[in-house]
Amino acid sequence: KVDGPIVCCIAWAAMGKSRVSYFYHLSPATEKQMQADVDKHNMGEFSDCPVFDGVFNFCQISAGGSLDAAYRLNQGLSDICINWAGGLHHAKKSEASGFCYVNDIVLGILELLKYHARVLYIDIDVHHGDGVEEAFYVTDRVMTASFHKYGDFFPGTGHVKDVGVKEGKYYAVNVALKSGIDDESYMSIFKPVIEKIMETFRPGAVVLQCGADSLTGDRLGSFNLTVKGHGECVQFVKSFGLPTLVVGGGGYTVRNVSRAWAYETAVVLDEQVSNDIPFNEYFEYYAPSFKLHLEPNPDLENCNRRNYLDDIKAKVFENLRMLRGAPSVQMQSVPPDYLVREEDEDANDPDARTDHDPTRRAHDAEYYADDTDHHGKDDEVEEVHGPANEKQYQTDVNKFNVGEFTDCPVFDGIFNFCQIYSGGSIDAANRLNHGLSDVCINWAGGLHHAKKSEASGFCYVNDIVLATLELLKYHARVLYIDIDIHHGDGVEEAFYVTDRVMTVSFHKYGDFFPGTGDIKDIGSKAGKYYSVNVPLKSGIDDESYLSIFKPVIERVMECFRPGAVILQCGADSLTGDRLGCFNLTVKGHGECVRFVKSFGLPTLVLGGGGYTIRNVSRAWAYETSVVLDEQVSNDIPFNEYFEYYAPSFKLHLDPNPDLENCNTRAYLEELKVKIFENLRMLNGAPSVQMQAIPPDYVVREEDEDKMDPEQRTDHEISKRAHDSEFYAHEKDQLGKQDNMSID
Questions:
Q1: Which of 131, 541, 601, 652 has its CA at 20 to 30 Å from residue 326's CA atom?
Q2: Which is catalytic among the residues 449, 486, 487, 507?
Q3: Where are stretches of biased composition, namely Basic and acidic residues (predicted)?
Q4: How many angstroms separate the CA atoms of 603 and 596, rounded?
Q5: Is cis: bond before 335, omega within 30 of 0?
């Protein structure tokens, strides 16, 4: 029985593509049932594991590669195998997670356990290898050792106290690190811990996950390792001479991922490679250095003190001393391999059906060649599906940073998605301009990373910029405030050279996406000093945040005197966010909304980031009540999603007591002084010459109803028609001619 998409993928990887072709023809009975199925396994449009075209083949290749590698190690065909497409360490038995659909590592380890009594798993990804640890948490035959960022960081697991249970007690090793760790600090704990594990556990084989998001400069990471430091881990593990499977993993700055894995391939092969990257078709992506190796970020603080690392090391060693020697395994017959190798299949009778060749099932809608009168010719097919078209399409999507290998994939319904959230912000701005509302909310908006010709950071169209342009038709000055954990780079860039918009962003700065927003970035030309950046460090709490937020906003209001405000309320700055590292509560986040509202200006409140969905809904529900001046209970009322708010079932969150606040009072005071100094450089609030107000983006339905139906409006004339559109009568023909003359 096939139970869900995860098991389907595993079955495919295990049995081989040709043996399960009938899976292509399985379809859900209803759309609702399909949605229930994908939600059950954390897959779908609103999860971090969306279903995309080719997901099945992707899982097959990734998982099949690790299975085949484990088989080669078992048979002595290789000493070390590499599968850079593998390493998807977050996936669980029945749940996709963190961009991981099928846990190829678990499958590879299960294969290795057929020939080896003990297998060691080592993980140097910046994220905890929770899926692998969970799979082997109660066994003493697999030891998992994960070196990761711990705290308010995805997946939020991997405390040093998590040591396994039952037979697996003390066989889970977690090295919980803090932001900014460099090569020297990392090696000072990695090498002694691995050496002690090898001595105590005595594994027969090793699996090493080399997630490259622990490198300096990663868009979602916060470590400061160089390519050499990362590769030194591979070199050290290789030095023990055990059968080793090296797999990939995370990595969100693609040019650095390729640097690391190219270098580590050379390490495995004992090859020397030049630091100069040879010219190739992707050469431009390695600008400006065009070098293989990276320099650490000198501005990223290493929060891992020597005494902290020594304390972690002592706890790990104490746990390892509790082991009663390496476990033995009773002799037994070796189970069959997952893989049926091609040479084995060739030896079989080609006319005989194998045990794993099921009866092919045909979909009801399938038809055969004889059922149609016309068959597509080669030139007809190539006209729309030829290599030239595919290459041109790929060039077009790459040009705008949209596509399969970016952080802005193309998905079904993308146009409607952009239309709804952008239109919502434009319509809200229009309502504020006409005095129809005092405050408008569009929680679907706030996509602050998108640029004029580039999608970025899950943001396709910058609705904030569009709404600001609409507000500027009626207001001389507009203030933009951003409390998302990521810098509002797209909005700042759009208005970097104007004095009519001031952008104020409170964000995590350093080795953190998008890597912009230094306090020295203040605008240029007419916009000089009209960009305000407040670069914060990890772990900031309510008290520290409000101690700088309120004075800065108060001074900005006093100096800039805006006519309208846009407030972006990205909820990834909350405690417990899967990609964030701040420690704000829902009340603290909402207090920012309350404070901005207190100035009584026309205000557009928008959403933004947020990767722990239950906390996003908590924050925006509470902030909606703040805007409405309503009191809401801390007890979440029962509803169909009630279970997601376990275990507290409360609206408000408690801060994480284990997350260190790296923002000292002196640091925040220094920021405040620099910002106030920049604001003093302003020559008063800018004025705008009187001029005719441009037409609204939005023609409201009630306005159209009041118009003379026989009279054509400017808005109607300006509509452009597609060449293929046809018309029913003379008036429309005239409109078409007008449109052609305009074009």
A1: 131
A2: 449
A3: 350-378, 708-735
A4: 8
A5: no
Task: Please state whether beta strands 531-536 and 501-508 pair in parallel, antiparallel, or not at all (unpaired).
Answer: parallel
- More confident site: 330 or 605: 605
Quickly list DSSP for 26-54.
---SSHHHHHHHHHHTT-STTSSS---TT
Rg value, the chain, Cα: 29
Q: Which amino acid is at 724?
A: S
- Closest to 694 in 3D by CA, of 712, 711, 718, 710: 718
Distance CA 156, CA 152 (A): 6
Whether residue 9 contacts residue 38, with contact meaning beta carbons closer than 8 Å, is answered with no
CA 689 to CA 384: how far, in whole Å?
52
The answer to whether 715 is a known catalytic residue is no
* Helix, strand or coil, per DSSP, at residue 244: strand
The answer to whether the beta carbons of residues 736 and 727 sit under 8 Å apart is yes
User: For the segment 101-141, what is each residue's pLDDT rounded down to a tens digit?
Assistant: 999 999 999 999 999 999 999 999 999 999 999 999 999 99
Letter string b/e over residues 637-660, b meaning 16 or more CB atoms within 10 A of that residue's CB: eeeeeeeebeeeeebebebbeebe
**How distant, in Å, are the alpha carbons of 396, 398, 482, 500, 523 from that of 453?**
11, 11, 22, 22, 20
Which residues on adjacent β-strands are paired with residue 480?
A: 503, 566
pLDDT at residue number 47? 79
Angle between helices 183-201 and 306-320 (to 10 degrees): 10
Distance (Å, whole) CA 319 – CA 506: 41
pLDDT tens track for 259-270: 999 999 999 999
Tokens read off for 461: 């169209």
Within 8 A by CB and 6+ apart from 565, the residues are 478, 479, 480, 481, 596, 599, 601, 602, 603, 604
**Up-side HSE of residue 676: CA atoms within 13 Å toward CB?**
13
On whether the CB atoms of residues 573 and 589 are closer than 8 A, the answer is yes
Which tokens is 572 given? Answer: 């990834």
User: 387-399 and 378-385 are packed helices; what angle lies between their axes, rounded to 10 degrees?
Assistant: 10
Contacts of 390 (CB under 8 A, 6+ apart): none
Phi, psi of 106 (to 5 degrees): -60, -45
The secondary element (H helix, E strand) that includes residue 676 is helix 665-679
